[in-house]
Design goal:
With about 350 residues, this protein is α+β, with helices and mostly antiparallel strands. The protein is built from 11 helices and 11 strands.
C-alpha cells in the first residue's frame, strides 16, 4: 500500500475544518510521548543514582518517565519505547555518561534547533558513506529542494477559531535534511529511535531516512533502497497539508526522546523568529484558491485544493491527475504562466 493511501485512510476518518498544516498542528498541540527508564530495585536505592535522577524527577524537561522494576531479577537499567513498552531502546549500567547519552546527543540538539526554527519536516538520513549511499542522499536532497519550490501550505483564515496557531516560530514551508553516519557512537540511541519500535530493519546495517516533525515525532522510516521520489512526495505533502488528525493516537508514527521543555521553548521561539509567514497567506475562506503542487511535466500534473488532502501520483501513471473542476481551473490559471516563462 502506498504511503499516502495509508495515511489518508487513517487520518481522513476524523477530518475537520482545521486548515493548520499537519506538521504545525503537531508542534502546537501534540505532547511528546514519554519513554520509560526502568531501574532495577537495587540500583534505584543507590544514593548516587538517586542524586543523578533527582533533577529529572523534580522538574525534568525530557519526555521521560522513571520507574523501578517489579522484577527482582532485573540487573540492568532499561530504556523502553513510549508506546511499545516491551521494546528496548537501551540497557546497561546507569551512570552519568549513560544518562547523558540517553537524554541527548549532538544530532538531537540540531533537530530541536530546526524544529523550533519552524522547519516543516527534517529528513534524518543515516548512511554508510558509500558511493551508492552518497548518490541516494544527493537524490533525496535534490527532490526535497524541488518540492519546497513547488509546494504550498493550506490557506489560513485568521478568523477561523479551529485554525488558530499556538505560540512558536513563524509558519513556513521548509524541507531540510540532517545526515548521520550509521556507525556514529554518539547517535546509536537516536538511530534506534528513528528506526522505530517495530524493528522492520536494523539501523546498524541499513542506510535509511526518517521524517521528523512536530515535537520529535517520526512519521516513518524507510531504507534508502526503497525510499523513491514518490514516497518522499507522499510524506512531505501529507505533512504540509491540512490536518485531519486531531487526536495524536489516530495518526501514524512514533516519538523520539528529546531533552526539552516545549511549553517554554515554543513561546521563546516565537519571540526570536524573524521570518514572516509568507506561505500562510491570510484570505477570506470564500475566496477561491488553488494551490499548485507541481509544475506539469510530460507525465503528470498534481494540484492540491484547500478541501482535499494531497495524494501524489504513482510513478509512471499515464496522463495528468485531475481532481475534478479544481484541477481544470488550475490548468486554466497556471498554464498561461508557464507558457510565458
Amino acid at each position: 500500500m502506498r504511503l499516502a493511501t495509508l495515511i489518508i485512510a487513517i487520518c481522513t476518518s476524523g477530518a475537520c475544518a482545521c486548515t493548520i498544516p499537519v506538521f504545525r498542528f503537531a508542534l502546537d498541540r501534540w505532547e511528546a510521548d514519554k519513554f520509560h527508564l526502568v531501574l532495577p530495585q537495587a540500583v534505584s536505592k543507590e544514593p548516587a543514582v538517586q542524586d543523578l535522577l533527582r533533577p529529572l524527577r523534580a522538574n525534568g524537561k525530557a519526555n521521560l518517565d522513571i520507574t523501578t522494576s517489579a522484577d527482582t531479577t532485573q540487573q540492568d537499567s532499561v530504556l523502553r519505547y513510549s508506546r511499545a513498552s516491551d521494546k528496548q531502546v537501551w540497557s546497561g549500567k546507569l551512570d552519568a555518561a549513560a544518562l547523558s547519552a540517553v537524554l541527548d546527543s549532538p544530532a538531537r540538539k540540531k533537530l530541536v534547533q530546526q524544529l523550533l526554527a519552524g522547519d516543516s519536516v527534517i529528513w534524518v538520513i543515516a548512511d554508510s558513506g558509500s558511493p551508492v549511499d552518497v548518490l541516494e542522499v544527493e537524490r533525496i536532497e535534490k527532490r526535497l529542494k524541488f518540492l519546497e519550490q513547488v509546494a504550498s501550505l493550506p490557506i489560513q483564515d485568521p478568523n477561523d477559531p479551529d485554525s488558530q496557531l499556538g505560540p512558536g516560530p513563524a509558519l513556513k514551508l521548509k524541507f531540510t535534511t540532517l545526515r548521520l553516519r550509521r556507525d556514529d557512537p554518539a547517535e546509536q540511541l537516536l538511530l534506534r529511535m528513528l528506526a522505530g519500535p517495530q524493528g522492520t530493519f536494523d539501523p546498524a546495517t541499513t542506510s535509511f531516512a526518517g521524517a521528523v516533525f512536530g515535537r520529535g515525532r517520526v512519521l516513518g522510516a524507510w531504507p534508502l533502497a526503497i525510499l523513491d521520489d514518490a514516497s518522499l512526495d507522499d510524506a512531505c505533502m501529507f505533512l504540509v497539508g491540512r490536518c485531519g488528525c486531531r487526536l495524536k493516537n489516530e495518526s501514524p508514527g512514533w516519538d523520539i526522546l528529546l531533552n526539552l521543555d516545549w511549553e517554554k521553548a515554543l513561546p521563546a521561539a516565537a519571540t526570536t523568529s524573524e521570518s514572516k509567514p509568507a506561505e500562510a497567506q491570510m484570505t477570506s475562506p470564500q475566496q477561491p484558491q488553488i494551490q499548485a503542487v507541481f509544475k506539469p511535466t510530460a507525465a503528470e500534473l498534481i494540484t492540491i485544493t484547500p478541501d482535499e488532502p494531497a495524494v501524489l501520483a504513482d510513478k509512471g501513471r499515464k496522463g495528468p491527475l485531475i481532481a475534478g473542476m479544481a484541477a481544470g481551473l488550475a490548468l486554466l490559471v497556471l498554464i498561461p504562466r508557464w507558457l510565458r516563462k
